Amino acid sequence: MFRETNEESRRIWDANAAYWDEYMGDESNDFHRDVVRPHTIELLDIQPGDSILDIACGNGNFSQYMAERGAQVTAFDFSPEMIKRAKHRRRAYLSSISFHICDATDYHQIMQLKREKPFQKAVSNMALMDIADISPLMQAVYELLGQGGIFVFSSQHPCFVTRTQGYLSPCLTKDIAIEGQPNLQNYYHRSFQDIFQTCFQAGFVLDSFYEESFRGSEIPAIFIARLRK
Q: What is the rounded distance in angstroms from the CA atom of residue 15 to the CA atom of residue 39?
């Protein structure tokens, strides 16, 4: 539905890459560390030797986290500028992380990341709302995972963190994620129904789900889900 906006999104992320890289730094920010990561880490259960696909990896913060725990990571982002910065910032970990420019809306590009052995796990941190079309991603990830493989992803909560007055109808809005970033980014609102029907149509089952708030709020800011093949 929003595929025609994908190249615009890529240009925006290229333009924002330097600011994001500097802001997120080596260890990410407190929101990612305190809100996104705990349940993501629990559900992903990173083990030494795991083969993990990191989707929309940004500057590679979580790629490094997984590599430090013994995983072999294949990480991608559709922003060439972001991948350039990820390779530089994580240069001490390139024996455990391979970074790629790859478009999460392009099934064939994602499938080019196929390894001799299937991935055991895949992860995507706070990116689904930035992706114009998630159907190709879900189908490709399902095919790249081995039987019983898992995909853990987080995203903004579509009920409580939304930039539209509607809920059921998908829509595109523009806003910021980090105060001071040079350009507004594209946000793609989808209902839970739309998100999980896309997952189920690809063949996944949902086997765990969390809603998480920031700084003690009763209103969840994000959700974290685990899919299983």
A: 31
Q: What is the pLDDT of residue 104?
A: 98
C-alpha span between 218 and 35 (Å, rounded): 13
* pLDDT per position as a tens digit, 54-88: 999 999 999 999 999 999 999 999 999 999 999 99
**Rounded Cα distance, 227 and 57, in Å:** 19
pLDDT of residue 6: 96
Q: How far apart are CA 201 and CA 210, in angstroms?
A: 21
129: closest CA among 161, 102, 86, 168?
Answer: 161
CA distance 78 to 86: 12
Q: Give Cα 168 distance to the centre of its chain.
A: 22
